[in-house]
Amino acid sequence: QDSLKELEIEVTPELISYVLQSLGTLNLHRNPLTLEKPIIGFSVGDLNFYSRVGGSIETFSGASEDSDIQFSMDNLVFKGVATSENPERKVRNLISENKITLEIVASETELFSKGYLKLYNSLK
Q1: Distance CA 46, CA 38 (A)
Q2: How far apart (Å, rounded) are the C-alpha atoms in residues 15 and 42?
Q3: 103-118 confidence digits (pLDDT tens)
Q4: The three-state (H, E, C) secondary structure of 64-114, written as one string
Q5: pTM for this structure?
Q6: If you placed Cys at 51, which of 14, 59, 112, 113 could pair as Cys (CB 3.0 to 4.6 Å)?
């Protein structure tokens, strides 16, 4: 734990994309009716990001009004995830320990149409 505190990891859009990709978010897809891409919000401490998924993951600084789901955690928790050999398992454990908040923003229909069910089930 103490070694993580000293580890300087800059929270960048690329690092957010890496973590999301390791969670299996590339399996998400556009809503077949509206063609809207999945959008995932991500907060680390007081930094906000959002990622658009569609074949690849594009992550941008700032918050999005259109996020389907929202991950929130502090800096130390994010460092632990980003440096983990198995980020998916790490996120799953941290969600169950309430160290990462996974908030569902969109309707169940919207989430289902974009393929979130498998992702959500894998993280619970």
Answers
A1: 23
A2: 11
A3: 999 999 999 999 998 8
A4: CCCCCEEEEECHHHHHHHHCCCCHHHHHHHHHHCCCCEEEECCCHHHHHHC
A5: 0.92
A6: 59
